[in-house]
Design a protein that fits this description.
Elements (H helix, E strand, L loop, with lengths): L2 H8 L2 H11 L6 H13 L2 H17 L1 E2 L6 E2 L13 E8 L2 H8 L6 E5 L17 H9 L12 E4 L5 H14 L5 E4 L15 H9 L2 E2 L1
Parallel strand pairs: 3-4, 3-5, 5-6
Antiparallel strand pairs: 1-2, 6-7
Helix pairs in contact: 2-3
């Protein structure tokens, strides 16, 4: 019998289930899952209910903005609905976490579009898998954009790696005939890196020094 099996027999069944669920989380091994489970056990009932309630709220309330596809509990999201934002300038990113990293710089006052991925033919990810059609609809029909504003510039904020560059090239091609200015973030972002790991200063420079495509 393995050490893990012996440990499971020593725990109440509900604790075993909690450990198993925690161990399914990214980056959480068996030992970390046990520590999290015991943290919950030591917490008060109210603290445990708040944790359970937060998880339940996320699954019930959070959805994608119908305009930009960012995560939100309001539709449209707060950024798309903010009259202080320049809705004529759209910064395209791969994932919501990239949007958050760029937003934290405080340098960009336009709106966003989240592709929910990037092109990767080897993994079967094509244009139809992304929210590309929704982006083109926003460009073609101002009524589909935030506050009904016509888009004049699309900034490509894809990660500077092979798949990100391929996605940016495809977007530049499909946008070329639509009469909008297409730029991309400056190469202040190191090639092969990820936007979410870049510093605020690096992202601010990338936004300020964006180039035409």
């Amino acid at each position: 019998m393995s050490d893990e099996s012996r440990a499971d027999r020593a725990y109440p069944e509900s604790v075993v289930r909690l450990i198993e669920e925690f161990s399914k989380l990214p980056g959480i091994g068996r030992r970390s899952a046990e520590r999290l489970a015991f943290h919950v056990l030591k917490s008060t009932k109210e603290e445990a209910r708040r944790l359970a309630g937060a998880i339940d709220d996320v699954k019930r309330l959070v959805r994608h903005c119908s305009i930009c596809w960012n995560l939100t509990d309001d539709d449209p999201c707060r950024i798309c609905g903010d009259p202080r934002r320049d809705a004529s300038t759209v910064l395209v990113v791969e994932q919501p976490k990239d949007l958050i990293a760029l937003e934290q710089t405080g340098m960009f006052r336009g709106v966003y579009h989240v592709l929910l991925g990037r092109l990767d033919p080897l993994d079967g990810v094509g244009p139809e898998t992304l929210t590309l059609a929704a982006l083109l609809a926003r460009v073609d029909e101002p009524g589909r954009n935030a506050r009904g504003v016509a888009i004049s510039e699309v900034i490509l904020g894809l990660n500077p790696d092979l798949e990100g560059d391929g996605t940016a090239l495809h977007l530049a091609e499909v946008l070329a005939s639509r009469g909008v200015k297409v730029t991309r973030l400056a190469r202040g972002l190191p090639s092969g890196s990820q936007i979410e790991f870049a510093s605020r200063a690096m992202l601010a420079d990338a936004i300020a020094e964006r180039r035409s495509v």
